[in-house]
Amino acid sequence: MAEFLYRVGRLAFRRRWSVVLVWAAVLAAVGLGALKAPGPADEEFSMPGIESQEAFDLMEERFPGTTADSATARVVFIAPDGEKVTAAAHRQAVEKAVRDLGDGTQVASAADPFRAKTVSRDGSTAFATVTYEVGVSDLTDASRTRLEEAVERARDSGLTVEAGGNALASEGGPGGSAEVIGVAIAAVVLLVTFGSLAAAGLPLLTAVAGVGVSMATILALSGALGLSTTTGTLAMMLGLAVGIDYALFVVSRYREERARGRTPREATAIAVGTAGSAVVFAGLTVVIALAGLAVVGIPMLTRMGLAAAGAVVVGVLVALTLVPAFLGLWPDAVLSRRARRSGRIEQGGRADGGARWASFVLRRPIPVLLLGVVGLGALALPAADLQLGMPGDEAKPTSATERRAYDALAEGFGPGFNGPLTVVVDGRGAADPKGAAARVAREIGATEGVVTVSPARFDETGETAVFSVVPATAPTDEKTENLVTAIRDERPGIESATGASYEITGTTAMNIDIAAKVQAALVPYLVVVVGLAIVLLMVVFRSLLVPLKAAVGFLLSVLASLGAVVVVFQQGHGAELLGVEQTGPIMSLMPIFLVGIVFGLAMDYEVFLVSRMREAHVHGASPARAVTTGFRHSARVVVAAALIMIAVFAGFVGESDSMIKMIGFGLASAVLFDAFVVRMAIVPAVLALLGDKAWWLPAWLDRMLPRVDVEGEALGRAADTGPAPDSAPDPEPART
After folding, report:
1. pTM
2. How far apart are CA 244 and CA 316, in angstroms?
3. CATH class for the domain made up of 195-348
4. Mean residue pLDDT across the chain
């Protein structure tokens, strides 16, 4: 591996203009393809294998055209305290507002609350449902503006008027500004790390080029592969992240080799041969984590994972070819200002911050290990109370009209009104389908926790019925989940008595089923991803204990970050500091996203850091010196990469959307725990205690595993024109 990549680095350096032109041609080609390709389709979210999805599919089959994803708005009218919306003046204002709401080219209907009987029992609240002829993505800005203006005019009558529904939903979360802020923060961190504008700019330039190729390819293939606008979100974020990290690692090794007195071409080749090997295997671990999302069984998530895996592959190729080509174009530009001015490149000091920290941990491995494990374990404890769900309008800030509309409906019609259950009765096996549907409705209506059951609506054949069930509790309440379970548990008895079968769907039931499926898929996903990564790391490090240690450390950091998310977003401790106004269940996909993304980044840090230790060990360094060498050469790179990621993810906490806040907080805390507690503290402490045993591999397993040269042994020592890499004295032995 190292010898092959060494030749790749030399070739890219020598044919630098050709490499740059090839990448420019690739970018132009996929960019042209993206411009000519049809636009991406709307995301069709589906969850095969759950009851609510099967019920929804049955509705589409038996009631064709009635379950289309049309845009809707629910406009809520609240009378002043002590008054009723049924009063003559208020009723007139509501009816006028309904006429205004129905006046639009894309409006299909606007239901009068007095005719539709959508007035609360106490008469204080009423709502009108506006249905559009098109879906949310096809709703024009003019239609949204007309809706907002109609609501504003209705407020002039003295009524409190709020609007909810997907017609007002903004498309997407954080936009390009978040990426721009991330690049700016990365530039500052890289500049401080390298002390050179060129050295800081090169990783950014190559990372942006790689992301450009990846995103253009995704757009070009969106029509053919059925990709949506959301598919590339994860690809852009991770493509930028790993692109910077991988280029950073190669450039850092190049500067190190130049400091040893090697020529630019030789330094580039060795950097690609050694650091490039670590980049390849780090990239493979990320690809495994992302491709493993297919285990969850959510098509949308699978497409996102595969697209992001493709972006990571592009990032690896850019680091191995485009980065050395740029080093060939400007061989001295990435060096420090002092080196460029004096013309003399000095090797870095032996006792930098990374080496001093490693020496500290090596002298006190047990206290450091206990402090790290106990601390992360304490943070992980709240994860045992994790409740999954899909927060809706109730999680939005009170400044949003959707949140105020949600609260008004809950107060006027009951907390369960915002999350009705939809029951689909299939009476084809019953002697009297309509009588069977009526019996099902009565039995469900008698279940504890049900407030009302709507009249049934039948299909053209009269064999399939649909009706709504309003629970007594809110959609995200645990009691609502228990109610859904209770209704499903009653099914065998009801079906045997009526001959008709029924299933439950609707947004609330769908969210409950998704949460259950994700929880069930989490353990298999971890087994597949972590198991494959352990095998890969055993091949890289020729060790049994180092990969196991890496996996256990990752699990600690992920559980600790999940615990932190539960503490803030579910239990509410410190929520006000982050602007979280409503606590509740954790987003169902959050654990999967957290595991997949953080696992990839954690293994990046593991490979970058431990590969230098392994390299020193292979070249004869003692276990203690190998740890110090790894920290001396890689700690700054790992810290810089982690700071960039933390800053980028933490920027999402400033978003108004509660789910975006949750994702940003979870990812930032996970990277913080993994990079600074696990990789920088627990890893050296464990290696100090293991000593030579850390690199032990059973003979039978050693024979089975393929051999790859990550340390650069095949490059030979003939090219070593500089001083020996590890001439520093051994640190003090570990105190056990």
Report:
1. 0.76
2. 10
3. mainly alpha
4. 81
